[in-house]
């Protein structure tokens, strides 16, 4: 009887378990080496524990990489429809919400359990608490761990990135890739909060608002996302901020000036109409019912800080309660100045501050807060349709270790399923 082809997968996350299941279904003997005590730990945290595991909209713009053609080829071999069919076969009932798919049970652990159960049914062996120290390749791979050397006909590295290290993604896979001759684009946090030292932020902390988050790099618009922005005491959060954070991280790493503008949903026309109707109101009351009180206080603080705005407060404090408006000719109105007393320059300054509140970004939050990484093993060093290394035969990569990061919305998991499937299939076939 012909000996079964032995495949080792490093990493028991989403892409690693998908690769193992795929290879086992092709008749291979498969062993997964996992450095933590449990498989699928990161899967169980996704979607706030509800697991948005794929998305109907698979536009390539949802995937960030320097090699988009590779991503297109891999996603073309395992689409979101195939993902749905795969998990339905394992017993997962998908629930769709605006194109975003979740398990009907709203439990992320259902996805990881279904994968693990299928892998075990197929005879895949899980070796947990295993740290891979060195990999060598002659006719076979020799994977050296502490105290034991595993041998394999093919090797799939699906060891994750540096994001969320508490789940086991500590970046050790990058070193293994380097041992086998591969370059790694510098990993940086992505899908993460953006931090700022702006003094308005502590006053805004806890506020959530529907807005555009506009990323400016060296003064030019780099990206724009819409959704619920969340203010924290030292920065900005929320899905639209997360969506632009990878690009912000790259720009900051390159030493560029990074700004984030928050643009609430109401536009200039709405403010002009409001002034026509409610210009008799004071600065302190004009925006009541339109924007949150915290936001307006911060906007007026920004006006106070702008020497050209002509709006200040006595003693330099409590702008929101004692706002005064500078009138050409050097005179001052009383503390309850009407909005229609502002000249056009002052009105435009006020509108600008309210509609484009801008924060200078100093850095991103760290890897421990990031959902994924920007950067990783370069796709150009792999075969485009198989994810096999061009440098080492029978070596494959899958998942987040690669230089691909997706937007929020199930894209990183879809990349994990697709790349894991492709790597597992071609490793089983031997090329």
Task: Give me some keywords for this one.
five-stranded parallel β-sheet, 12 helices, seven-stranded antiparallel β-sheet, FAD/NAD(P)-binding domain, alpha+beta, 24 strands
Topology:
Elements: E1 6-10, H1 14-25, E2 29-33, E3 54-55, E4 63-64, H2 68-77, H3 80-89, E5 94-97, E6 100-103, H4 108-121, E7 125-127, E8 132-137, E9 141-145, E10 148-152, E11 154-157, H5 172-179, E12 184-190, E13 194-195, H6 201-204, E14 208-217, E15 220-232, E16 235-237, H7 239-253, E17 258-264, H8 268-278, H9 293-305, E18 311-312, H10 319-322, E19 324-325, H11 344-355, E20 357-360, E21 363-364, E22 372-377, E23 395-397, E24 405-406, H12 411-429
Parallel strand pairs: 1-2, 1-11, 2-7, 11-23
Antiparallel strand pairs: 3-6, 4-24, 5-6, 8-9, 9-10, 12-22, 13-16, 13-21, 14-15, 14-17, 15-16, 17-20, 18-19
Describe this structure in words.
With 431 residues, the protein is α+β, with helices and mostly antiparallel strands. It folds into two domains: 6-188 and 374-429, FAD/NAD(P)-binding domain, CATH 3.50.50; 193-365, no CATH class. It has twelve helices and 24 strands. A hairpin with a 2-residue loop joins strand 14 (208-217) and strand 15. Helix 1 (14-25) runs parallel beside helix 12 and helix 2 (68-77) crosses helix 12 (411-429). The chain starts with 5 loop residues before the first strand and ends with a helix.
């Amino acid at each position: 009887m012909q000996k079964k082809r032995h495949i080792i997968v490093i990493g028991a996350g989403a892409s690693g378990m998908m690769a193992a299941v795929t290879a086992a279904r092709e008749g291979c003997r498969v062993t997964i080496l996992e450095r933590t005590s449990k498989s699928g730990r990161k899967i169980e945290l996704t979607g706030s524990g509800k697991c948005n595991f794929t998305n109907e909209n698979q536009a390539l713009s949802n995937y960030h990489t320097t090699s988009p053609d590779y991503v297109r080829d891999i996603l073309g071999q395992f689409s979101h429809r195939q993902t749905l069919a795969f998990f339905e076969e394992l017993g997962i009932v998908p629930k769709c919400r605006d194109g975003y798919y979740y398990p009907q049970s709203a439990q992320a652990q259902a996805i990881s359990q279904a994968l693990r159960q299928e892998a075990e049914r197929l005879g895949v062996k899980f070796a947990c608490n295993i740290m891979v120290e060195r990999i060598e390749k002659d006719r076979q791979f020799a994977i050296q761990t502490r105290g034991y050397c595993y041998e394999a006909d093919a090797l799939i590295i699906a060891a994750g990135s540096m994001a969320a290290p508490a789940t086991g993604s500590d970046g050790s896979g990058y070193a293994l890739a380097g041992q086998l001759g591969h370059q790694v684009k510098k990993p940086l946090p992505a899908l993460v909060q953006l931090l700022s030292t702006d003094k308005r932020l502590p006053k805004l902390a806890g506020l959530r608002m529907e807005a555009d988050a506009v990323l400016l790099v060296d003064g030019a618009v780099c990206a724009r996302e819409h959704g619920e922005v969340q203010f924290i005491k030292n920065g900005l959060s929320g899905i639209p901020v997360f969506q632009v954070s990878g690009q912000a991280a790259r720009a900051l790493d390159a030493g560029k000036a990074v700004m984030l503008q928050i643009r609430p949903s109401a536009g200039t026309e709405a403010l002009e109409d409001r002034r026509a109707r409610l210009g008799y109101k004071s600065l302190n009351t004009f925006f009541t019912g339109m924007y949150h009180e915290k936001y307006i206080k911060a906007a007026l603080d920004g006006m106070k800080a702008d020497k050209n705005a002509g709006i200040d407060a006595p003693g330099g404090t409590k702008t929101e309660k004692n706002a005064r408006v500078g009138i050409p000719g050097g005179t001052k109105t009383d503390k309850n100045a009407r909005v229609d007393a502002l000249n056009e320059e002052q009105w435009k300054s006020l509108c600008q501050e309210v509609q484009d509140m801008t924060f200078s970004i100093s850095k991103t939050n760290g890897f421990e807060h990031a959902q994924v990484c920007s950067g990783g093993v370069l796709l150009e060093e792999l075969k485009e349709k198989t994810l096999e290394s061009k440098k080492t035969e029978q070596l494959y990569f899958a998942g987040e270790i690669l230089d691909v990061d997706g937007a929020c919305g199930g894209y990183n998991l879809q990349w994990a399923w697709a790349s894991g499937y492709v790597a597992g299939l071609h490793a089983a076939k031997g090329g």
